[in-house]
């Protein structure tokens, strides 16, 4: 993975604004279209750092078409942990 020089870090209110926009437009937009539809304007580089953070923290996912969706639902976490069908099992050879 390439290490980039980050010139602008997002503030907390910026991250929360992007999170709300992703939840609102869940799976509708690709990265650039989502950036254009944010309620407040922000620099694209800052937006990219925010998207990278949300991907790293496993709150969002990007599908094969490049559309961004919200996948973090903490209230369902306990139910998902109990469901053994959602986990990979080691295959015996």
Give the tags.
93 residues, mainly alpha, Arc Repressor Mutant, subunit A, two-stranded antiparallel sheet, 4 helices, globular
How many β strands by DSSP? 2
Strand order of the largest sheet: 1-2
CATH topology descriptor: Arc Repressor Mutant, subunit A
Q: How can the largest sheet be summarized?
A: 2 strands, antiparallel
Tally the helices.
4
Beta-strand share of residues: 5-15%
At the first level of CATH, what is the class? Mainly Alpha
Please state the average pLDDT score. Answer: 86
**Low-pLDDT sequence parts:** none
Shape: globular
Written overview of the protein:
The chain has helices at 12-24, 31-36, 44-56, 77-82; strands at 60-62, 68-70. By secondary structure, it is mainly α. The protein has a single domain (12-85), classed as Arc Repressor Mutant, subunit A (Orthogonal Bundle). The protein has a two-stranded antiparallel sheet. A hairpin with a 5-residue loop joins β1 and β2.
Brief write-up:
With 93 residues, the chain is mostly helical.
Topology, element by element:
Elements: H1 12-24, H2 31-36, H3 44-56, E1 60-62, E2 68-70, H4 77-82
Helix pairs in contact: 1-3
